[in-house]
Amino acid sequence: DVKVTQSSRYLVKRTGEKVFLECVQDMDHENMFWYRQDPGLGLRLIYFSYDVKMKEKGDIPEGYSVSREKKERFSLILESASTNQTSMYLCASSADRDGNSPLHFGNGTRLTVT
Amino acid sequence: AQKITQTQPGMFVQEKEAVTLDCTYDTSDPSYGLFWYKQPSSGEMIFLIYQGSYDQQNATEGRYSLNFQKARKSANLVISASQLGDSAMYFCAMRDGYNTDKLIFGTGTRLQVFP
Question: Does B99 touch chain A (CB under 8 A)?
């Protein structure tokens, strides 16, 4: 079974802090994704990566950056956290780009910025 | 641009009954894929079922089936014989373009199963 692990279940940070959300997958998947989930808005794609050292912007990249130094790890970085970044963050991975493969998600990190 | 619409913010169903969760989509791509995910209160997103636009038959997985009506651009999820454990958020999603695994999601439907 694919396992996607997000390092924190809950995080509370202060405005202006630099925040790192870590995600690791154990199935040698090429593709990794970061989504945020807000009530009434569903899931929105922040960034994704199809290979090591590669990253592409999703639909809402502003205020975020990512890092993929190793294939299994994809980090989401909030350079200077703001209260409007309080949200549930979900990491996902997939095996290939044929479009038929489901995304496998981690359990999510609920981030509160005060 | 692709778009997914789920018009039911919440649904109630009695245990052992069937329930249909609605999903409509918009795309100009001739080839596309549609997914349904379940999110219990624990937060994990669980993949339920997939339907490809060229699949001849509606997808089924156990108690889940997808009522795919291509002309109407709808991909409704049918859950038969509902169980209390089916209470969760349900998201419809679509592949966001060609040769990609990126998904765009609807806003979700919260299903509550009561005894």
Answer: yes
